[in-house]
Design a protein that fits this description.
With about 325 residues, the protein is mainly beta. The protein has helices at about 1-20, 125-130, 280-285, and strands at about 25-40, 50-65, 70-80, 90-100, 100-110, 130-140, 145-155, 165-175, 180-190, 200-215, 225-235, 245-260, 260-270, 285-300, 305-315, 320-330.
């Protein structure tokens, strides 16, 4: 709680001086996320749990001109059943520039709207509890798509913590109705300042490549798209002297939507993977299919509320998941 108060006071003071020194209009953003995620998982692939809470993120800032911006604030997730302050707040503080085909950010900034990775690589649960990237992000935009790079510093090295970071790239291209998407990340986990017996440097990588076709303009639906391709992972522990353990599987996505009612299907067939931050179904199940039915009763410019019901199919059994996610941008 003391840290929370100190950070809040520091941000308010900083922006007080920023607004004076630059004689700019003080700008703000405020976003609320309501999260209700009930996971009835009773297979060996995932733990059963309920994640229920509210997140509030606010940022203050100023725009030097139409290109350069600075923002600072806090993002806090209050998990129901816990107590206020039990989860630490995440600091938001970043500089951004957006000019013609290039965009750039440095600092601590929201992950979801900047790095939209599939659930296989960045799981919903990881996003709930770790919504902020601490690092760098650059994106190139063109008429047919975009390409981005990022680096996320997960943990700095000291006597208790291991040095850890994620780096990756993502992109998408569209030519007519054909689409191409690629996602890649490298996760590096080094040691502590003082060597710990049995603890070695670890490296893991994940990649997804998808070729798709958008049928939306050919059918009486709002969305109908099909994507298929490959999914790969690689992992090594440098302490055992072995090379990378590489696994590859097929991966496909199907999306159907009509007036806020929809179905999403994610199909993975092949070897289990080692994705450090992804859904554990992809890491432990040989074949896995997730079908997600959804209804979007609230879909306005600044607010969206969506009910989702997912079925998770593995060789052992079928699991259930119910979600309601609401986002309100003030």
């Amino acid at each position: 709680m003391h840290m929370f108060k100190r950070l809040s006071a520091l941000i308010i003071i900083c922006f007080f001086f920023v607004s004076i020194l630059h004689a700019q209009t003080l700008e703000y953003s405020l976003k609320y996320d309501g999260i209700a995620d009930n996971r009835e998982y009773f297979s060996p692939h995932h733990d059963a749990e309920t994640i229920f809470g509210s997140r509030l993120g606010f940022a203050l800032g100023t725009s030097i001109d139409s290109i350069h911006q600075f923002r600072a604030g806090l993002s806090y997730f209050y998990e129901f059943g816990g107590s206020f302050g039990e989860l630490p707040p995440h600091l938001i503080m970043y500089y951004s520039v957006d000019h013609h085909k290039w965009a750039f950010k440095i600092g601590a900034f929201p992950r979801k709207e900047n790095i939209p990775y599939p659930n296989a690589l960045i799981s919903e649960k990881y996003e709930y509890y770790n919504p902020i990237v601490d690092g760098l992000w650059v994106k190139h935009k063109s008429k047919n798509g975009n390409f981005g790079l990022f680096a996320d510093w997960v943990s700095r090295q000291d006597s208790n913590r291991r040095e850890q970071f994620i780096a990756g790239f993502f992109g998408n291209l569209r030519y007519g109705n054909f689409t191409f998407e690629d996602y890649f990340y490298l996760f590096h986990k080094a040691g502590r300042i003082f060597k710990v017996e049995g603890e070695h440097i670890e490296d893991s990588m994940g990649a997804i490549f998808l070729l798709g076709y958008d049928f939306s303009d050919k059918v009486p639906l709002d969305i109908l798209s099909v994507k298929t391709g490959t999914m790969s992972s690689a992992f090594r522990n440098r302490g055992d002297g072995s090379d990378f353990d590489i696994n590859t599987s097929s991966y496909s996505e199907v999306v159907v939507d009509y007036k806020g009612f929809g179905l999403e299907a994610f199909l993975k067939f092949g070897s289990p993977h080692h994705f450090e931050f992804g859904s554990n179904y992809y890491n432990s199940a040989t074949n896995y299919v997730r079908t997600r039915f959804y209804f979007t009763p609230i879909n306005l410019e600044r607010i969206q509320g969506r009910f989702m019901y997912s079925l998770h199919f593995t060789a052992e059994r079928m699991d259930h998941q119910q979600q309601f996610l609401l986002s309100y941008m003030f």
